[in-house]
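HUMAN: Mind making up another protein with tokenized structure?

ASSISTANT:
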Amino acid sequence: MQIAKVCGTVVSTHKSRTLTGVKLLLVQFLDADGNALPNYEVAGDTVGAGINEWVLVTRGSAARKETGHEERPVDAMVVGIIDTVTTTSDLLYSKKDAERMY
């Protein structure tokens, strides 16, 4: 899994039938210090994440492991919304603190 920040949503009215009802998010991956990497990806969302939230993204075949959704053609799936990230030296991210900023 990788940590990413939700940057936006993607709307696609014409898509594979197996993607019907799947919310699509634009996510930007983060490094170990919480800095944005240049990589963006579209990921399906199973947890109801919103813009500016930090999320856990699983990629590759693991993105299709959810029961009943093994046939979805997705390479990335948001599988968790992060509450906090702590390193040995500091609190890197707190959802509660981030919500105060917006």
Remarks:
- The chain is about 5% helix and 45% strand.
- The first helix runs from residue 95 to 101.
- The longest strand covers residues 36-45.
- The beta strands are 2-10, 23-30, 36-45, 54-59, 76-81, 84-86, 91-94.
